[in-house]
Amino acid sequence: MAPGAGPYVFVNPTRRLERVMVTPVANTGLEDVVVSTSDICFIDGDEGRLLYRGYDIHDLVAHSSFEETVYLLWHGTLPAKKALDRFSRELATQRRLPPKVMAVLKTLPKKSHPMDVLRTGVSLLGIYDPDAGDDSREAKLRKAARIQAQTPTLAATWARIRKGKAPIPPNPRLGLAANFLSMLFGTKPSPLAAKAMDTALILHADHELNASTFAARVTVATLSDIHSGVVSGIGALKGPLHGGANVGVIRMLLEIGEADRAEAWIKSALGQKKRIMGFGHRVYNTEDPRATHLRKMSEALGREVGQTKWYEMSRIIERTLNEQKGLNANVDFYSASTYYAMGIDPDLYTPIFVISRVSGWSAHILEQQANNRLIRPRAEYTGPRQATYVPIDRR
Ligand SMILES: CC(C)(COP(=O)(O)OP(=O)(O)OC[C@H]1O[C@@H](n2cnc3c(N)ncnc32)[C@H](O)[C@@H]1OP(=O)(O)O)[C@@H](O)C(=O)NCCC(=O)NCCS
């Protein structure tokens, strides 16, 4: 193939670099392809380490809050107390939805999937955002804060509207996680449930160039706006191979029904070459460090509500998958039984992922646009090259 005519690897698309000719074979799935530099998130798939801006996820879970983690992702450093208070206040005071967005939510068909409502809702928020059209970094940060503050309200409001219940207004005195649960249920959550939700949000906040983050970056690399980037992220996260897996997990647990049926059920599913949701990962060859915390939360919340059955069943499934296929639980596996113990409807599990991952998408959108280059890969063309056009009346 003549130089200049084939597929290329762009080693660093954020800078103008030489194009390097490679064998013209498509890497479907872009596995192990490095398409960008990034200072946000580090994953060591062999050691099972996950760092946000250099900070180990285990330290953040032990000492931080979701709000502080969001600040860290967006600004690159941990905030001093005053800065964190200011940032938390900014998030807490912007939770209410614009009345026009609220009005649209009330007109949607009650059976609309919460992920579709979130996708539509964020798009609407973009239309009514006071900074719409301003693309300065300051405006982008303000818009990111509004999206971050309002996605929990969108999800909780829809969860109530679709059941014919009145939406609960946000409570600015509660942290983001506790307020989300209180808007969902109309009661203040137990300290354990609030802590578990805060932890789940920290754990889902970012994960390098996963499919939805890549989608968000591709969108804003055209110099499109932050709301469009987040909408792209939501669309990509919805699929069952990404954020939709946690719903597949709870469906599986409910179908298995009893812990003593779990091992046989999994072996039979594997025998039929079925994929078990909540297991396996493109990057981790070891335990997903997020699963370590979610496992503990699933057990603790199961105990609090007096129903450890789903946790126990999950343990058996985990052991069986490990023995049979060498597969480890990923972030989605124990988040399912954790949210179920809180009494959250299964189709809200992926929206909770959105509430958290908005923080990571926003960090990546800011980073992409700070040093932008259009992301435009190539395809290995496998179609015909000499088709002769036949007029429609002769086909
Ligand atoms: C996450 C995932 C898409 C990564 O897939 P991937 O890197 O493309 O890996 P592959 O699909 O090529 O799978 C490699 C092998 O492991 C097997 N495998 C991977 N995940 C599996 C799972 N969850 N259940 C059963 N087998 C699985 C595949 O069948 C394949 O086996 P084979 O080589 O014998 O055919 C995949 O593990 C999966 O589908 N998991 C379930 C969905 C999920 O939990 N997603 C959330 C991710 S955080």
Can you walk me through this structure?
The protein has 395 residues and is mainly alpha-helical. The protein is 54% helix and 4% strand. It is built from 16 helices and five strands. A hairpin with a 2-residue loop joins strand 4 and strand 5. It starts with 7 loop residues before the first strand and ends in a 25-residue tail after the last helix. Coenzyme A (COA) binds next to helix 15. Coenzyme A binds next to helix 15.
Order of helices and strands: EEEEEHHHHHHHHHHHHHHHH
Beta percentage is under 5%
SS field, number of helical segments: 16
Task: Please mark out the parts with pLDDT under 50 across 5 or more consecutive residues, or reply none.
Answer: 1-11, 13-17
Largest sheet: 3 strands, antiparallel
How many strands appear in the DSSP assignment? 5
Query: Order of strands across the biggest sheet?
Result: 3-4-5
Helicity, as a percent range: 40-55%
End-to-end span in angstroms?
A: 34 Å
Instruction: Report Rg.
Output: 22 Å
Gross morphology is globular
Write the layout of secondary structure elements.
Layout lengths: L7 E2 L10 E2 L19 E4 L4 E4 L2 E2 H7 L2 H10 L5 H12 L6 H9 L6 H15 L8 H25 L14 H10 L5 H14 L6 H10 L5 H12 L7 H12 L5 H10 L17 H16 L4 H17 L5 H12 L6 H22 L25
Antiparallel strand pairs: 1-2, 3-4, 4-5
This protein binds coenzyme A (COA).
